[in-house]
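Help: read this over?
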Amino acid sequence: MRLISLILSATACCSALLQAQQNYSLWPRRPAELEQAQRFFAQRQDDQALSLLQPFINKRGLAGHEARQLVGQIRVRRYLSAANPNLRRHTVRRGENLDRIATAYNSSPELIMLINRMTNPSDLKIGQSLGVAPANLRMELHLADLEITLWDGRILVAAYNVSPSVDLVKQGKNEETVLTDREGEINGSRVPRASALFASSDRMLTFSNGLVLINSTHRPPRAAYVQMQRRDLNELSMLIRGGARLSLVRDEESYDPFATSPTEELKQTEKKNRTRSR
């Protein structure tokens, strides 16, 4: 009887440990810095929160993942507003449209519209002052962490949870690709980029290697795909320009974002598609 009791006790202990490993609040112990950063975030003390989170940004595992998610929530607010650290002013001249202005600043029309609280891309007046920010962010898809991150140099701007297709995960090498097309959709109908409705449409992003980013309500295509929450994908689309590069990271140990040198073919693809996909 005592032996059975010991076995049951050991089984319960093992079960508790397994549950704890899946529960961040129990195992491993949550760093105190992250708890304090959450409190600062709730109190809108963003700079204090960022200071505590910075040492965890490049860490793998639960602590790094939580830190990146929280930093993204803080920084993305700035990059999608007039508080964007790279903001410049532009005075609208005769003959200009939003696409032309976006091209000149390596930005996207959607980002310019959001920063300036515009609802229609044709709402431009000669002499109007616009806040314009470049959309030159670097994207990384970390398949082991099921996460897409956006970087402005070494500054983390946003982090999103993703769900990739099985065939995308199976391949073993890191890969570089570029954004070739952005499509809009409302209630199952395609929305052309020239339409005033495009800014409020749901996005689907296609890359030069055939990878497709879709939101969780879309039917998965036959090609390799990554599903994201609708809000996250629409937000991501506003933060990047046509021809933006994406690093598919399958091997974390061999990946160095500042050592990657795109092939000539990739450079040509980026150049060719940059204007077309704006």
